[in-house]
Structure formats: structure tokens, C-alpha cells
């Protein structure tokens, strides 16, 4: 793709506008935002104002169909509520004009929908799709991935990810308050962590056991007569094909935490830890003991905009843009298969809570449950 790469943003709520901000900081890389689509007038207005502040005279539409038909975009970012991803992706992939796609996580809210999207995209080899599993790019996480890949820790045996944070934010029309819309907490936000577990263990998951509940948050909220059903805390254990194990510890009423994410990866030689937002990585070996633990301050000089996610969205865009410009010679670093597995693990975890037993990934992928 020669010259300026023109982006269209479908869904310009919090994350859509965050994408506009990131793209504005990438202007010198030859990108522009040409259009936005959103049925919610206040979101459209905010997107227009934001784009105007960067001198981008964007066209705004109330639906993605008009944006696609306008023909003014090369790339579409899907940053709409999770339950809308499937239909919007189907419409983009089946549109006569090819558009590359960056879809926010989760790819879709169900495994069946993820699989259908993968089949449809296969029919359009000229379209490239990247999934927004951007935690991979956070500097301390990226550093830990590099340490693991270097072999310093040996064969990875255990990956433990703790996310202790604030409750879900308020979203447009409160879509994120119900499992039916978000896919459930372990799909909606924990797909990021399941994706990281697959990366660290370099293996696919076999089965998942989880325990979780809605214990503190949203209990006094009512929308159209219904109280939210999204869980606010959980433990999940994942077993991988190569015998390694992952554990997720999620708490969404833990504002009193120094870090939001604490990731520990232990191999048969050593241990690595990443702390976000402290931006620190610890690396030690069994031989070196406590005294030998190295403390590394992480940083990525390429980041020109930290934004809401510690610069990871910026790096995600750099990466996606490089893949676009490589015109098929470079696959996006987070592909559809990664999107599918991260959803499947979340779905298995949600089902495990419901059923009180291990749920295999095969049951979920083959929909035998
Ligand atoms: N990468 C991350 O870490 C991260 C962080 C937050 C949100 N997200 C994801 O980004 C997406 C959007 O979340 P958000 O926080 O911006 O939500 P939001 O509610 O702030 O914004 C969603 C916007 O989409 C619009 N919308 C709804 N249906 C639409 C449709 N059919 N076509 C076009 N626009 C439509 C809404 O009107 C709203 O303006 C979700 O998939 C969410 O999971 C990812």
C-alpha cells in the first residue's frame, strides 16, 4: 500500500478515540484517520472534535455499512462492544472493497463466531486481520517474553498472572455489565492473560478449571430491571499440552494495589517476573539465588504516546502498520488463531465456574459442551 494509509474507526467510544489518539501520534509514519462510524451521537461528536484537534477532517457515519461503502478507508479498526464484533467483521470481510482489520479483543464473544470469522477470512487472502491482544507489547511484558524466549529460564513450567485492579468502567449503554454482551469477564478482559500464558508456555491449552463469582461490584446497579451478572473475582488454572501450568488470579475490587498486573514465569533454570505499571522485570536463576536477582527497568523509546495502556496500543499500531506495508510478506504478530484460543480459554473458564469441573478446550472448540 503506497502513500498514506487511511483508517476508519468503527465504534468511537473510549477505545475508538484512543485509537485516533495513537494514530495522531503516528502521523509521521504516513497514516490518517479518514472516517468514523458510530450510532451514538455523543460518541460521533467527541470523535469529530478529537479528529479536528489534529486537523483531520474525518467523515462520520452512523453505521459501518456507510463507512465501508464510502470507499475512503484502507484499514478498519473495530472498537465496538464485544457482542457486535462478529457481525461487523462479517460485513467487512464480505465487502467488495478489501479492508485490513484491527479488531479489538475479544475477537468475538463465542468460539463458534471466532471459527466462522476465521473461515470467512480464509476466503479473502488479500485481507489482513490483527487482533488487539496488546498486553504483549507492554514494555515489562515484552521484556519478559524476550527473557523467556532467550532460554534464560529454561523450560517454562509455571505461569502465574495476577490482575488486581479497579472495577469495570462505565460504558456507552452499559453494554459491559452483562455476560451476554461481553462474553463474560474471563473472556472480555482475561483473554489478554490467556494469550500471554500461551506465549510464555509456547503451547496450546488442554483444559481449564476455574472458580469465581460476583461478590462486591455492581450489585446495587440495575439496567432495564436487570442486575449485572459479570463476575468480579476468579482463580483459573490452565493445563498446557507440554505439561506446563498457568494460573490466573483476578480481582476487580483491588484498587489498593501497587501494581495492576504481576506476572511470574518459572522454568527449570530460573524465574522471571513483570510488574505493570511499575515497569520492572526481575530475572533470577536457581543457581544465582535471591542475591543474583537482576532488577531491570523497562522502557521502549519507540513509544510516542503512552495513552491508557502504557504505550502498548502505540506499539500495536506500529506493528500492524509494518505488516500492512509489507503487503503480505509479514503476518500480523497477533493473528486470528491467537484470538480464537484466547476466547476459547476464557469460555472454558466461564463454563468451568458454571459446571464446577475441569472443562477441556476440545469440548469448547468442538462445541460438545
Ligand atoms: N485493548 C484493551 O485493552 C481494551 C480496553 C478497553 C476496551 N477494549 C475493547 O474495545 C471495544 C470497545 O470498548 P470501549 O471501552 O471503547 O466501549 P465504549 O462503550 O466506550 O465504546 C463503544 C462505542 O461503540 C459504539 N457502537 C455500539 N454499537 C456499534 C455499532 N454497531 N457500530 C459502530 N459503533 C457502535 C458505541 O456507541 C460506543 O460509542 C470492546 O471490544 C472492548 O472490549 C479493549
Automatic annotation (TrEMBL):
<dbReference type="InterPro" id="IPR000683">
    <property type="entry name" value="Gfo/Idh/MocA-like_OxRdtase_N"/>
</dbReference>
<dbReference type="InterPro" id="IPR036291">
    <property type="entry name" value="NAD(P)-bd_dom_sf"/>
</dbReference>
<feature type="domain" description="Gfo/Idh/MocA-like oxidoreductase C-terminal">
    <location>
        <begin position="146"/>
        <end position="360"/>
    </location>
</feature>
<dbReference type="Pfam" id="PF02894">
    <property type="entry name" value="GFO_IDH_MocA_C"/>
</dbReference>
<dbReference type="InterPro" id="IPR050424">
    <property type="entry name" value="Gfo-Idh-MocA_inositol_DH"/>
</dbReference>
<protein>
    <submittedName>
        <fullName>Uncharacterized protein</fullName>
    </submittedName>
</protein>
<dbReference type="Pfam" id="PF01408">
    <property type="entry name" value="GFO_IDH_MocA"/>
</dbReference>
<dbReference type="InterPro" id="IPR004104">
    <property type="entry name" value="Gfo/Idh/MocA-like_OxRdtase_C"/>
</dbReference>
<feature type="domain" description="Gfo/Idh/MocA-like oxidoreductase N-terminal">
    <location>
        <begin position="5"/>
        <end position="132"/>
    </location>
</feature>
<dbReference type="GO" id="GO:0000166">
    <property type="term" value="F:nucleotide binding"/>
</dbReference>
Amino acid at each position: 500500500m503506497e502513500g498514506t494509509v487511511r483508517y476508519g474507526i468503527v465504534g468511537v467510544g473510549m477505545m475508538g478515540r484512543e485509537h485516533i489518539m495513537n494514530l495522531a501520534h503516528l502521523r509521521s509514519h504516513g497514516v490518517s484517520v479518514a472516517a468514523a462510524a458510530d450510532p451514538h451521537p455523543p460518541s460521533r461528536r467527541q470523535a469529530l472534535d478529537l479528529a479536528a484537534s489534529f486537523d483531520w477532517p474525518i467523515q462520520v457515519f452512523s453505521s459501518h455499512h456507510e463507512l465501508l461503502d464510502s470507499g475512503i478507508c484502507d484499514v478498519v479498526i473495530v472498537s465496538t462492544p464485544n457482542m457486535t464484533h462478529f457481525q461487523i467483521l462479517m460485513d467487512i470481510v464480505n465487502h467488495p472493497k478489501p479492508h485490513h482489520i484491527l479488531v479489538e479483543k475479544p475477537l468475538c464473544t463465542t468460539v463458534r463466531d471466532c471459527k466462522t470469522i476465521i473461515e470467512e477470512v480464509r476466503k479473502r487472502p488479500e485481507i489482513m486481520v490483527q487482533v488487539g491482544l496488546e498486553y504483549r507489547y507492554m514494555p515489562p511484558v515484552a521484556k519478559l517474553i524476550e527473557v523467556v524466549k532467550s532460554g534464560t529460564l529454561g523450560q517454562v513450567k509455571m505461569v502465574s498472572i495476577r490482575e488486581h485492579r479497579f472495577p469495570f468502567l462505565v460504558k456507552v449503554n452499559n453494554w459491559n455489565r452483562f455476560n451476554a454482551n461481553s462474553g463474560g469477564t474471563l473472556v472480555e478482559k482475561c483473554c489478554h492473560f490467556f494469550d500471554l500464558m500461551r506465549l510464555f508456555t509456547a503451547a496450546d491449552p488442554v483444559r481449564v478449571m476455574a472458580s469465581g463469582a460476583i461478590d462486591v461490584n455492581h450489585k446495587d446497579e440495575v439496567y432495564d430491571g436487570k442486575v449485572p451478572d459479570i463476575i468480579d473475582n476468579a482463580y483459573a488454572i490452565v493445563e498446557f499440552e507440554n505439561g506446563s501450568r498457568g494460573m490466573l488470579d483476578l480481582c476487580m475490587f483491588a484498587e489498593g494495589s501497587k501494581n495492576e498486573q504481576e506476572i511470574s514465569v518459572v522454568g527449570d533454570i530460573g524465574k522471571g517476573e513483570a510488574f505493570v505499571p511499575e515497569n520492572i522485570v526481575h530475572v533470577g536463576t536457581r543457581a544465582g539465588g535471591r542475591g543474583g536477582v537482576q532488577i531491570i527497568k523497562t522502557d521502549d523509546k519507540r513509544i510516542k504516546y503512552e495513552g491508557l495502556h502504557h504505550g502498548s496500543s502505540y506499539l500495536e499500531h506500529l506493528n500492524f502498520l509494518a505488516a500492512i506495508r509489507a503487503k503480505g510478506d509479514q503476518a500480523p504478530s497477533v493473528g486470528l488463531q491467537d484470538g480464537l484460543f484466547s476466547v476459547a480459554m476464557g469460555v472454558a473458564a466461564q463454563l468451568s465456574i458454571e459446571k464446577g469441573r475441569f472443562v477441556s478446550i476440545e469440548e469448547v472448540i468442538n462445541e460438545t459442551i
